[in-house]
Amino acid sequence: MPGAALKHVVALALNVDDAEVGDDASMDTVGAWDSLRHLYVVMAVEEAFDAKFDDDEAVSVTSVPLLRAALERRGIATGE
Amino acid sequence: MNAAAGGVGIVGLGKAVPARAVDNAVVEASTGLAPGTIEKQTGITQRFVVAEGETLTALASEASRGALTAAGAAATDLGLIVGCTYTPDYIFPALACDVQRTLGAPGTAAFDLMANCTAFQVGAMVASDRMTCDPDLTHALVIGAAIVSRSLDWSDPHSAMYFGDGAGAAVLGRVPAGYGFLSHAVSSQTRAYESVRLRRPAAGSAERTYIEMHGMDVWKQAAQHQPAVIRSAVAKAGLTLADVNFFIFHQANLHLITYLLSRLDAKPDRTYTNVERIGNTAEASMPIALCEAVEQGRIRHGDVVVISGVGAGFTFGASVMRWYDPAHAG
């Protein structure tokens, strides 16, 4: 999914409407973003942006800003 | 491991699960969860639980007899029995001692160890290391068994949705050099020690204690540390992840297994799952899954197989083996 928008990828992984995933969305603000769905968020983001987080980082990127920062550290644009 | 002297590998597997199935509707009713929640969150559709009066020794012995039959071995061939459980019928003596007398293996060394849901892998490591050190040991029996249902508060959704009862067993024997166990790795990360626990009641208290789980910490621990212990075991074997033909994971949650495969760059066809059908059977989950995968022809002679689990504490383990099937050894 080249050029995918990060928030859209997250919304798809959480199976929620795009409108529920704002710029600052996180596990604390999106009800569907629970501990297990987060595994799917990580897998979806890695696939969409052709990125690979390390194991520690993968469990820590629990918000859109943290995901965006992790991708930008790899020089990957998040499409937003 | 002294390859010139041959290897130590699994030569027979057996399993046992209770007859009584409990589907999600029952657990969702007792926990107040909405219909469909358990399958959505875990992939589990049912679990099996013991009836009143059923014992862990009976389940473990049934699985052990199956493993001995598959191995073509007699109970009297066993030089070691390792029981892996947190739910022996008695606080002591050990489950392994009760199985020893039930099977009829007088004199055979027998003891239990506790590493919770990764205990079978740890037990296999201990038994294979013992056999490597002692040439007089021709066969060892490793049992993973648990009656979790008696430790559950069936109104607590954080724990009740996951577990079932069962037993699995493996007979270890001598195999040709280059086959059998190639490496083991175990590490414990104790920051989240309290996150999954079964407390002993305070002295003099009439309190009944149950399994308590903090779900967030559980997945975080497994997601963070289990891939590392697998990579470590594979590297110790002088192999890469691409060399691994098949993974058997502790059957905690279907979503977690999917995630682990992703971390290991492995497709779903390189693993076997039964958590959907029997739930998380704790110490029994890996040997039951391994037994079923072998029975169904998913694991073949010469395959590199990794078994890996995570247990409360948390203890992470992985063992690498090259599968030996005497029927196809040529």
Please provide a written account of the structure.
The complex is a heterodimer of chains A (about 80) and B (about 325). Chain A is mainly alpha-helical and about 80 residues long. Chain A has a single domain (about 5-75), classed as ACP-like (Non-ribosomal Peptide Synthetase Peptidyl Carrier Protein, Chain A, Orthogonal Bundle), CATH 1.10.1200.10. Chain A has 4 helices and no strands. The longest helix of chain A is centred in the middle third of the chain and has 15 residues, at about 35-50. The two termini of chain A are about 15 Å apart. Chain B has 10 helices and 13 strands. In chain B, strands 1-7-6-4-5 form a 5-stranded mixed sheet, with helices on both faces. In chain B, strand 12 (about 305-310) and strand 13 (about 315-320) form a beta hairpin. In chain B, helix 3 (about 55-70) crosses helix 4 and helix 7 (about 215-235) packs across helix 8 (about 255-265). The mean pLDDT of chain B is about 95.
Provide key terms for this protein:
heterodimer; A: 80 residues; mainly alpha; Non-ribosomal Peptide Synthetase Peptidyl Carrier Protein, Chain A; 50% helix; 0% strand; globular; B: 330 residues; alpha/beta; five-stranded mixed β-sheet; four-stranded mixed β-sheet; 10 helices; 13 strands; 25% strand
